[in-house]
Amino acid sequence: MRPIAIAVAALAIMSAAHAEEPAPDSENGRFTFNQVADGYLRLDTRTGQVSLCTKRTVGWACQTVPDERSALEAEIARLQSDNAALKKEMIARAIPLPGTRTEPPSNSQLELKLPSDADVDRAMAFMERLWRRLIDMVQRVQRDIDRKGLQ
Question: What pLDDT score does 120 carry?
Answer without folding.
Answer: 95
